[in-house]
Amino acid sequence: MNPTYDFTGQVALVTGAASGMGLATARAFARAGAAVVLADLDQEAAERAAKELTDAGHQALGIGCDVADEDQAAAMVARTVETFGRLDMAFNNAGIQAPPADAADETAADFDRVNAVNLRGIWTCQKHELRQMRNQGSGAIVNCSSLGGLVGLPERAAYHASKHGVIGLTKSAAVEYAPRGIRINAVCPGVIETPMVADMLEGQAEAMAEIMKQQPIGRLGTADEIAGAVLWLCSPGAAFVVGVALPVDGGFTTH
């Protein structure tokens, strides 16, 4: 049984919220009583997801945002505050994969693209979320890293570099903002049953089979299991948790 939270009167922002872990987390925040902003590169999908929540009686807003574009990230936060009056919690989840490649053969275009979304995108979102939370004197941010932020795997150098970077960004900002009443942490999902992983299972079956052999729990994780970790990190139950990179990976990183 999952714990229940009461986020009534609070406002949560989730990026990459139209599907997968982002959508599961947005739904969980809404069930816990928060007003939720669902941001995604696919604006129509974000709006559909928000309508699902409003139709169920929740407060929700769907907006389009390319997190790699700082102006769009700033506008996303500004619209959140204009609509709901504040910002209490954020899950910076938007991310992409990079095609597997020999480290000597990865292209600059692939490296730049994956880092633009996975690292710069979290930097832009966190920066503008912090400006609002700094004014309030309170808030909680969870950045989405990966098991790829904790380990190395062959043919994944660019992607893992981006996810290692998220942890460094998280820890440094966490130390800076903990005295100001704002907690910042990262979650490190393992192999989770999402549309992105489904594509990997289909297109990189051999590599994924090897990864699954290292999964002690013997199954994929679920998006709801990541949502549960994010809500805990945002809750009073994690009031003394600052700057962690929390593995939610079925034991993968224990090797």
Automatic annotation (TrEMBL):
GO molecular function, one term: glucose 1-dehydrogenase [NAD(P)+] activity
Gene3D superfamilies: NAD(P)-binding Rossmann-like Domain
Pfam families noted in UniProt: adh_short_C2
EC number: 1.1.1.47
Source superkingdom: Bacteria
EC category name: oxidoreductase
InterPro entries: KR_dom (IPR057326), NAD(P)-bd_dom_sf (IPR036291), SDR_fam (IPR002347)
Positions of the Ketoreductase domain: 10-190
Keyword NAD attached: yes
Keywords per UniProt: NAD, Oxidoreductase
Family: Belongs to the short-chain dehydrogenases/reductases (SDR) family.
Annotated protein name in UniProt: Glucose 1-dehydrogenase
Organism: Streptomyces antnestii
